Amino acid sequence: NTAHEEDLADSLAAAIKKYPHTNAVLVQRHGIYVWGPTWMKAKTQAECLHYLFDVAVRMDKLDMNPGLAPPAWDQNESPVKPPPQKRPRPCTDDAPPSDPEDPCTAPVKVILLDIEGTTTPISFVRDVLFPFARDHARAFLGEHWGREDVQGDVRGLRDQAIQDLKDGLEGAVSIPEEAEDGSNREAVLDACMASIHWLMDSDRKVTPLKQLQGHIWKAGYHSGQLKGTVYPDVVRAFDRWVGDGVRVAIYSSGSRQAQQLLFGHTNAGDLRDHLSCYFDTTIGHKRQAESYKEIALSLGVTQPR
What we know:
This protein has 3 domains: 5-62, no CATH class; 110-121 and 229-299, 3-Layer(aba) Sandwich (Rossmann fold); 123-223, Transcription Termination Factor Rho, Rna-binding Domain, Chain A, Domain 1 (Orthogonal Bundle), CATH 1.10.720. The chain has helices spanning 9-18, 39-61, 122-143, 148-166, 185-201, 207-223, 234-243, 256-264, 289-299, and strands spanning 24-27, 31-34, 110-113, 247-251, 277-279. By secondary structure, it is mainly α. The strands form 2 sheets. The protein has a 3-stranded parallel beta sheet. It has a two-stranded antiparallel ribbon with strand order 1-2. Residues 77-82 and 84-93 have low confidence and may be disordered. It starts with 8 loop residues before the first helix and ends in a 6-residue tail after the last helix.
């Protein structure tokens, strides 16, 4: 590290030249520089590296060297045998095991699930979560107006409205800035509510709305007013997949916070220990193929099916 970032230019350039395929450089006592062809890919890589660094720190606290590969298991040294690796069924019941390089028959490493209609009845989201957020939005905003995360939600809704009005979307509601003395706060709250209602009525799955809904649902889950619902076979499926060494990830239009809240407060208990990753629309919209490519990259899957 150096006193000024510009003094790092030469050593940073040398590191990049030495490792041309890398997308990050860690500077001692400073931090990490991450880059990518798009800001979204750079963000994804930063999140993955953050997770790996967190694991490394935790391992170090346990006197484990994160730089060493796990030692090979020797059945003569330990009476405990590792569980047998189970191979998932091929794509068809009568198809024999094939080439592991074949995406159709290669062992499944990760299962990516949606929430609505997959793990949770659509009616729970439509008839419980959405009405709860709508009914409690005004009171939540009023009570927590001074919180920075809530102000971030309001700024996001305002920016979204500006873009929607620019795009000529009929019904979009502009949200004014609050006066320094707060004299127009009620008017700002009215505009926020009108914008929230319009977005929900239009079934807009935009990030600012999802983030605000997640904050409202968090209060509901913690107060006991909300409890998530999962299908009866979800726990059995999770247990089977995790037992087979398969990671289970979630990709939903709801925010990652909302996803974790739902699975942390279900009618079957806390299921978060079965789930390894959560993805929302910050990685891309669900109807865009690029979103799934980014998720596969984040999960380390080279042959997504």
